[in-house]
Structures are given as C-alpha cells and as structure tokens.
Amino acid sequence: MNVREAAAALLGTVSERSPLSEEWPGLDVDTAYAIQDEALRQRRARGETLIGLKLGLTSWAKQQRMGIDSPLLAWLTDAMVLPAGVPVPSLIHPRAEPELVFVLGSRLAGPGVTAATALAAVDRVYGGIEVIDSRYADYRFTLPDAVADNGSSALFSVGPVGLPPSALDLSLEAALLEVDGQIVDTATGAAVQGHPAEALALAANALGARGLALEPGWLVLTGGMTDAVPVRRGSRIAAHFSHLGSVTLST
Fold first, then answer.
1. Distance between CA atoms of 65 and 13, rounded to whole angstroms?
2. CA proximity to 101, closest of 158, 60, 150
3. Residue 204 and residue 73 in contact, taking contact as beta carbons nearer than 8 Å
4. Among 79, 113, 136, 225, whose CB has the most other CB atoms within 10 angstroms?
5. C-alpha closest to that of 26 among 144, 122, 114, 128
C-alpha cells in the first residue's frame, strides 16, 4: 500500500475497518500526514473546498491516553459543514464534542507564533459542535492511524453567536454538553491546551514546519472541550456556552 492507495482506501470506507497500521507496518506520523494531505487532494478533486483546520487530542488527558505531548492536525472542507437544523446523517459510529471555533482575520504562519500573536489573528470566536467518526473499529488506533484518518473528522456545526476574542476570557468560557435534556459533561476553554490560543499557536507552528500557513477566513476548531459522547439515532445533543449561545444537533 502506498500513500495514494491508503488515502483512497480511507475515503472509501463506509463501515468499520481495521487500523491502517495493521496493513502498513512501520507507518509513522510523517507518512500519515502525507496520506492526510493526499486525501485532501482527492477531496478537492471531487469538488470540495478547503475552509480550515481542526486540532485533535488537545486535552492533556487525551494526550496521556495516546502517549503523546502535542495535538494532531486535520483539514476541514465545506462538505463537513452541518447547517443548523439539518439532522446528522447516517455515519459509522459518530460521537459529538463541544468546541471553541476561531475565524481568522489575518494570515498566521509559523514558526515562532505565540498564543498572543495567534489570538491577534482571530477575527471572531464561535461555539460549535464537532461530530467525529473514526473509520476504525471500536475507535482503536495508533496516532499515525488517527492522523491518516484526518483526525476522525466527519462533520461540524457552528453556533449563531460570534464575538471578538477581546470580548471573552477564553480560558473561562464554559460549555455544558447536553444529551436528551440531561447535562452529561462540562468544561471551560482551559481544557484546550490550557487556553485555546495555545492550541492555535501550536497549529500555526506545526503547519509552518511543513511550509504551510493558516489563511484569512479559515475556521479553526480548537479541540474538544469535553470527552465526546455517542450520537444515537433519535437523540438531541446541545452545547450551551457562557457567552457564545447554543448549538443543537438532532439525529
């Protein structure tokens, strides 16, 4: 299996499969990012538009479970946007988590980006929900598997309230995650690398090492604030933010 074949295989997966690393012994993170980039190329060739970036494994607890010390990155396209009021379509085994979403007002290129310079590039902050959906059975994978699978990306929905970052204390911005009327988890922005701007800086610097940058107008999903909850047919999932309104998904 080569990079092109691996990308096509992952894009064509519609049910659970074994981790890629079981078919590709020695698969490493650099090769996994090459697979991710090739999958993006194939997505764009079929008409999708690149609109931003997401971070995964931004909480220290999740990083410890995976044995890593830095988040992973993955691409966002317009085909992943779930408009308000549109039900979550049938997926493999979706899960949902609340996120703080940045919209960039200016280009952000590493190396040397700090949290302060990263935040200065942000035009608006929104609340959102990401729906993740690993192609691997039982969410069992190595870090290279997760990277190659574009960070288990599936869909995301952004709320209606956008504020400038200066209007918020992002480390204290709270989210309540509700499933069928019951609050099941809570967190603040501090769960994301201590501050979401730290996650944004990490993303800019990691892209800079690959000769890439975050572009104006891009959306950046900064990472799950809570653990992800299963999205079951007939359920209603909502994220309620302190100052950024609410986002609701139905299935």
1. 26
2. 158
3. no
4. 225
5. 144
Res 68: pLDDT: 66
Q: Residues with Cβ < 8 Å from 216, sequence gap 6 or more?
A: 104, 105, 106, 107
Phi, psi of 79 (to 5 degrees): -70, -10
> With a threshold of 0.85, does the pTM exceed it?
yes
Other Cβ atoms less than 10 A from the Cβ of 44: the count is 13
The rounded distance, in Å, linking the Cα atoms of 198 and 190 is 10
Helix segments in the chain, DSSP class H:
3-11, 20-23, 29-45, 60-66, 115-120, 143-148, 196-209
Give the integer Cα–Cα distance in Å for 141 and 245. 34
pLDDT at 139: 87
Q: What are phi and psi of 45, to 5 degrees?
A: -65, -25
Question: DSSP E strands: which ranges in the chain?
Answer: 50-56, 72-77, 95-104, 122-132, 153-163, 174-179, 182-188, 219-221, 229-230, 236-241, 246-250
Distance CA(232)–CA(250), nearest Å, equals: 9
Return the exposure string of 5-17: e unless at least 16 CB atoms fall within 10 Å of the residue's CB, then b: ebbebbbeeeeeb
Strand 236-241 and strand 246-250: the pairing is antiparallel
Q: Fill in the amino acid letter for 170.
A: L
What is the mean pLDDT of each successive set of 10 residues along the chain, which is 251 residues long?
94 92 93 98 98 88 66 96 94 96 97 97 98 92 94 96 97 98 96 95 95 97 94 96 97 87
Token pair of 153, please?
A: 């990306």
